[in-house]
């Protein structure tokens, strides 16, 4: 079974061989401590440094490239935009905030985060 190591929090989560798992979703479900806000590639709060296993990650898409810019080349990814298919290890700054506060709709984040969290932790969500 592949394992994702969350170096900053000390957590480790395994998943079934052959699966492609969303990095932020698995972090939230297992309370691994990755900070996040929008879960849609806009804010950059969930940026994580890939310590190992880059070859097991989905290629970055346009939105992630635009949000991370040069950080992408330095080894950072957005957890909400990244799918994992094999072993990897990630770290982050536990106090990091959004790369662009303007990208966050200040009227929605708390409610959106709570809705997402409830959905991703529910038994019905099997993606
Ligand atoms: S949580 Fe906002 S970009 Fe991923």
Describe this structure in words.
This protein has helices at 23-29, 62-68, 70-73, 109-121; strands at 3-6, 11-14, 21-22, 47-52, 76-78, 83-84, 88-91. With 127 residues, the protein is α+β, with helices and mostly antiparallel strands. It has a single domain (3-118), classed as Beta-grasp domain (Ubiquitin-like (UB roll), Roll). It has a five-stranded mixed β-sheet. Strands 3-6 form a two-stranded antiparallel sheet. Strand 1 and strand 2 (11-14) form a beta hairpin. The radius of gyration is 14 Å and the shape is globular. The two termini are 18 Å apart. The model has no long low-confidence stretch (mean pLDDT 87). FE2/S2 (inorganic) cluster is lined by residues 36-39, 41-46, 78, 80.
The mean pLDDT is 87
Provide the CATH superfamily. Beta-grasp domain
Shape: globular
CATH topology: Ubiquitin-like (UB roll)
Question: Strand content of the residues, in percent?
Answer: 15-25%
CATH class: Alpha Beta
CATH architecture: Roll
Order of helices and strands: EEEHEHHEEEH
Strands of the biggest beta sheet: in what spatial order?
A: 2-1-7-4-5
Record field, number of beta strands:
7
First-last Cα distance:
18 Å
Task: Specify the number of helices.
Answer: 4
User: What helical percentage do the residues reach?
Assistant: 10-25%
- Bound chemical compounds: FE2/S2 (inorganic) cluster
Biggest sheet record = 5 strands, mixed
Radius of gyration (CA) equals 14 Å
Derived structural class = alpha+beta
The number of domains: 1
Provide the low-confidence segments as ranges: none
